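Troubleshooting log. The previous structure file for this entry was overwritten by mistake, so regenerating from the original sequence record. Sequence copied from the archived sheet and checked twice against the printout by T.R.
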Amino acid sequence: MNLLAPVALIAGLTLVATGIALDRAMPLVQSALFVALQGASLMGAGIGLALAVRLAGAAARPLGFALLALLSWRLAYFPIMVFSGHVASIGEWLLALSGLPIFVYPVFLLSVAALHAVAAVAISTLLAPPHPLLRWAVAPAFVVATLVSFNQLEDLRPLPDTVVQIDPSEVPPMRLEQGNPYLSALVGEGYLPNQRVVLVAAGLTYDTIPPSPWATAVKAVLEGLFLDKPFGSTRDRVLEHYLAYHAAHPRIGCRQESDCPIEPEPAGSASP
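Regenerated output below.
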């Protein structure tokens, strides 16, 4: 009996329910958000591993696939976290336009799980590719993920994320947008090649973020934090995303910017 489909369905429904609870939490509880992201990513990797074994059939190497799935979870965690936030922002925008109830974290968590499942299936092809040329398509994607996930030496740790405490006083103000800071930084000095990969990835997605309230707030906060610390590690960037999610959380449910506008910072209040 194939249990993969019902397990995936139950996992999906669990993530939707968890996401709704996160949306409604006031204030957002960091430990709950952390556990939800870990759960979604590991669920996705596990489902992807099971699917990879099933697809490979007699060519499957369960232990090797499991080790590769764990590796893909580590390498792709931060890129998937960032991209899933982007997916959630598009979902927020479409729901606002449609007049339907607005959800952010259900879409976010489902995207995290789905992308980790895809990553686990994709990396398994390095051991048992349906076609030898597929290795040459998959390997570059994980090289890019590695460059993003290991931005500096302090990122060389076994876990991609850890429990952090978010003090309300640490949550930065939502600054008004000043333009795309990432592509501008590419012409600057001091960045290593792998750090420029991060700038390119962030810069190319920056202008595709929709003008919905939650997404606009996340983008504005991340922009300000980047300008404050342009040479931050991936660990720093993970924390900055958490701070942005906390700052934007009260805006979940706003249908347009006028419902909950971002107030500009008073003159001279920006961090040095």
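The chain is about 65% helix and 0% strand. Archived copy saved in two places this time.
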